UniProtKB/TrEMBL annotation:
It comes from Methanoregula formicica (strain DSM 22288 / NBRC 105244 / SMSP). The lineage of its organism: Archaea, Methanobacteriati, Methanobacteriota, Stenosarchaea group, Methanomicrobia. This is ABC-type multidrug transport system, ATPase component. One of its GO terms (molecular function) is ATP hydrolysis activity. Belongs to the ABC transporter superfamily. Residues 2-231 form the ABC transporter domain. Keywords: ATP-binding, Nucleotide-binding, Transport. InterPro entries: AAA+_ATPase, ABC_transporter-like_ATP-bd, ABC_transporter-like_CS, ABC_transporter_ATP-binding, DrrA1/2-like_C, P-loop_NTPase. PROSITE patterns: ABC_TRANSPORTER_1, ABC_TRANSPORTER_2.
Length: 296
């Protein structure tokens, strides 16, 4: 279990984190989101043992990260927002370099590198990393974070700036890592991906936790189920005079309902005007809508 108690980080009068507390289980993907300046990267660096909080406690299983960050790093894979790579090296030599730092044998490095290249669909072919595309560089950085087979991963914007295909591939790869019992903490601006792959999500605003929980718990907090009604009508003029707003979409007229009572009133209005309900779609508020409600 990963547990934080009252984490605070003060940078010479600027309170980047203000009394943060949370916990989540091993083998989960934990997402941290918020507007720019909310404190996401600061929190990730504290979780990684890269910077020390001004006050508070953080435990990764039995490791006190504040007092003993070195013990954490032996089982940590960290991916910064920017893929800072040794671009004059080949990917093979790059992984070998870090494998040696972690005390792996040459045979272990060879096996792990081959496994990671295959899993990430990365074909380095002896090229220098500086010749890679941005997506290939990101995959090389991910491979570096996994060369020593850590159980705890901290990824800052793993898919930032990548094309949709590569971004989706990496998101799917993170799911596979969870199946391998890896514990993953990540931040991302791609809120759709966070929503799709994270077991729990924390929303930060100006260094404070404003929401934390599963997607179901967040949806319950920020709004209930809403409904979109698609309908057809021969004479749209019959809807004039009703207070409800309608629009056209996918060849149908569309209206929104905020709850079941509103849904019943909307469908009754459509029927009375001679229209026919074609389909009804239900939806919960998205993470993007939650962030908009929270504001900066």
């Amino acid at each position: 279990m990963i547990t934080a108690h009252n984490l605070t980080k003060d940078f010479d009068g600027f309170l980047a984190l203000d009394n943060i507390s949370f916990s989540f289980e091993d083998g989960e993907i934990f997402g941290i989101i918020g507007h720019n300046g909310a404190g996401k990267t600061t929190l990730l660096k504290i979780i990684s043992g890269l910077i020390t909080p001004t006050s508070g406690e953080l435990f990764v299983n039995d490791i006190d990260v504040v007092k003993d960050p070195l013990s954490l790093k032996q089982n940590l894979g960290y991916l910064p927002e920017e893929s800072r790579l040794y671009e004059t090296m080949t990917a093979e030599n790059y992984l070998a370099f870090f494998g040696e730092i972690y005390g792996l044998s040459q045979q272990e490095i060879k096996v792990r590198s081959s496994q990671l290249f295959a899993a990430l669909s990365l074909e380095p072919d002896g090229k220098k990393i500086g010749e890679f595309s941005k997506g290939m560089k990101r995959k090389a950085a991910i491979a570096r974070s996994l060369i020593h087979n850590p159980g705890f991963l901290v990824y800052d914007e793993a898919t930032s700036g990548l094309d949709p295909m590569t971004s989706r591939f990496i998101a799917d790869y993170l799911r596979r890592l969870r199946q391998d019992k890896k514990t993953i903490v990540l931040s991302a601006h791609n809120l759709y991906q966070v929503e799709a792959i994270c077991d729990k999500v924390m929303i930060l605003r100006r260094g404070k936790v404003v929401a934390f929980g599963t997607m179901k718990e967040l949806r319950d907090q920020f709004g209930s189920l809403t409904y979109t009604i698609f309908f057809s009508i021969d004479d749209p003029a019959k809807l004039v005079g009703h207070s409800r707003t309608y629009r056209q979409e996918e060849g149908f007229f569309v209206c929104e309902a905020e709850d079941m009572k509103d849904l019943n009133e909307c469908t009754a209005t459509i029927t009375e005007a001679g229209g026919r309900v074609e389909k009804i779609e239900s939806r919960y508020p998205s993470l993007e809508e939650m962030l908009l409600k929270i504001g900066k």
